[in-house]
Amino acid sequence: MDGKQILLDMTQDELKQYLMSNGQPAFRAKQLFGWLHKGVPFADMRNLPGALREQLAQECFDLPMELHASFPSQKDDTVKFLFACWDGNIIEGVLMHYHYGYSLCISTQIGCKMGCAFCASTLNGCVRSLTAGEMLAEVLLANRFLGDKGKVGHIVLMGSGEPLDNYDNVVHFLRLVNDPEGLNISLRNISLSTCGLVPQIDRLKEERLPVTLSISLHAPNDGIRTQIMPIARTYPIGELMQSVRSYVADTGRRVVFEYALIDQLNSKPEHARELAKLVRGLQCHVNLIPLNYVDERHLMPASPAAVQTFLKTLEGEHISATVRREMGSDIGGACGQLRRRHLEGNT
Ligand code: SAH
């Protein structure tokens, strides 16, 4: 790793160990943690001795990432970011402005290996997982970009990557980002989206982290789901729903189902009725997403009329559902689209 440590990966206790093994007093850990989690570079950590700052800069990263490019939408307040990791890899994030504040969509891996048929993130496979500190860096860089305008208050783990395929780092990130001496973002303001890794959902339930779980369902049965999501072969919809029901029962948290409407495939009224049957009785919300068309994929979005009919059918079945507001559609808003353009040399 370039020989350098990512200090943002460490808890305050781990920082303490690290500093003490370098002959520093324990109290420096609190100071260093505070600066790091404000995104302050070593050079500006005013209450640390100059020699220590220099040593840290030699051996460690303060921020293991920089802002590579930003693309503000012309249509709304959405900004798409490309971040350059310390090893030269490029990842993406999306900043959205809602009435309740700023929400950042972060990547959890460089690429993805889940292979969903409609998703651009997975086209080049997974290069590597991001560490907790790298995910924190995405938030810190978005805050730096915002400056006086505000701070990220909500996070969605819905960028490139499958969060539950990077389980330990993601859970570590959730604890760090919630640290009162760090960014102190409420876990209730964080959504974790998964394509449905059942054993990890069961494990997450035991962590007692009050994040909102989002399930990328996209189909009401295995026949359709296996056509677009390879993971459905490993964890069929019956097992997935059982795991989700148990998650909701144990945590008391409402679960969100993501459902991208694809022309012909999953967007007919009969599919809406089947979906309603599947989720009936569950404390849940269905988020309908008009499919974002990805050049390399041959799936087409459902028509606006089909989207409305699907929504009305669900509502008729008394299922809570909304159509997700399209944001940043002019800047490659869907997963992995911008990174992909970058890889092709078009950014
Ligand atoms: N791997 C995780 C999180 C990243 S994807 C997951 O699968 O949930 C975030 C969401 O965007 C998922 O619901 C994903 O299925 C959806 N998505 C990906 N490509 C899309 C596209 N072209 N149009 C609409 N939604 C898409």
Write structural notes for this entry.
The structure is a single chain. The protein is globular and about 70 Å long. The chain has twelve helices and 14 strands. The chain has helices at 12-20, 28-36, 50-59, 132-146, 167-177, 198-207, 222-228, 231-234, 237-251, 269-279, 304-316, 337-343, and strands at 5-6, 60-61, 65-72, 79-85, 90-98, 101-105, 109-111, 126-129, 152-157, 190-194, 212-216, 255-261, 284-290, 321-323. The strands form three sheets. Strands 3-4-5-6-9-10-11-12-13-14 form a ten-stranded mixed sheet, with helices on both faces. The chain has a two-stranded parallel sheet with strand order 1-2. The protein folds into two domains: 5-61, DNA polymerase, domain 1, CATH 1.10.150.530; 65-343, TIM Barrel (Alpha-Beta Barrel), CATH 3.20.20. 35% of the residues lie in helices and 21% in strands. The mean pLDDT is 93. Helix 11 (304-316) links the parallel strand 13 (284-290) and strand 14 (321-323). It is an alpha/beta fold. S-adenosyl-L-homocysteine binds at residues 114, 116, 118-119, 158, 162, 193-195, 216, 258, 260, 289, 291-292, 294, 334-335.
